[in-house]
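Write out this protein's structure.
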Amino acid sequence: MVMSKLNSMNAFVEKARDVLSSDPGRRYVLARTNIRDFKLLNHVFGFQKGNEILKCIEGILNKNSDAFEVYGQLHIDQFVFLMTKEKFSTSLFRQMASECSGLIESPCFRIHIQMGVYEIVDSNMEILSMCDRAYLAIKSIKIDEPLAVAWYSDSIMERCLYSKKIISEFDYALQSKRFLMYLQPQANTKGEIMSAEALARWLMEDGTILSPSHFISILEDSDLIWKLDLYMWEEAAKLLSKWKHDGDKKNLSISVNISPKDLYYLDIEKELVDLVRKYDISPDKMNVEITESSFVNNSDLYVDLIAKLHKAGFAIEIDDFGSGYSSLNLLKNIHADILKLDMAFLQKGEDLIRSEIIIDSVIEMAKRLDMQVISEGVETQEQAVFLKSNGCDFFQGFYFSRPVAVDKFDTVLKAYNLERTNAHHKRPKSLRDLVKEAV
């Protein structure tokens, strides 16, 4: 790959420092751009096309040099700009994205330029530190647009520092067994708990318990999630091994989650088969849960994996069904056993009737495909009754129980299992009660 002839990083830093020192009272911004998936572009279209795009950018910058105080090239596909705040505009960069996209003839690929902007509040700050802040802004971008712009803020730095804390403490926490397995019960139409989903919680040194929303995405982005998943699978296998000697729980199953990154770090089939052998449990008690969105970019790998897991005796659950863009095509290619309806279906919207029609149709379709249906996110009596009347097999949500620690699971189990509950003991209403009330 040929570097363009723009200012190198060292030259940019020197010239930017001169500009800021000569007029410290003026307001400036430092902007940094990144061509997303540039390595993929080179792989698909060749290095010559990559060079053509870089030359296009260089030409646009040189033609509009008056808009910048200084500009340069940080890396092959990353550029940096120092501009006065009053001159800053995204229009030039939108033009850049448009002209570069015009060089790609394939309708399946277009150029995405991401821009991070740092408004300079301390002109004495190191230039490289300013570049780092602009880069943090780029990392915060989630939208998929030809030009996506994010401004640096203190909250971005706080999130970055928090992520670094999570990552730095993760391995020790795992070794110290600071991760706890919580179980969220799944009830059948009789109000009896038949299974549970295993969910991770992080017990911090100060006693605080973190929910998955505080660390799962960070572990996924840093490619550490496979370690936690492997840990949780083993914790579930250990618990199932204990349950097989307990008359109240020997028939219960536990669902464990597979993350997309697990495919690249683990031989998933081997790990799960080894666990059921190690703890002498039946694989049909350990359901494997895969989110619908995971299939989008790895469908072939998942088809092969699911076939192997089925052969080994595991049941497959498709989680968050309806949250992605390929739901129906997914069901055509993936022979799963259980469909978990995305909780978004249950949220109140402007047209409740349309939502109910969709839910009814999905459940009917799943039945015809010989799949059981779990609805998660059930929070009200009305939702439970509607889902029961439309053929849903199992229910999961706060209406029945929040996720609970393993040592609290017995209490929930006894409260909901009608055969083992004293008729005079106060307990939450079961599905059996609700259906009677709805008749």
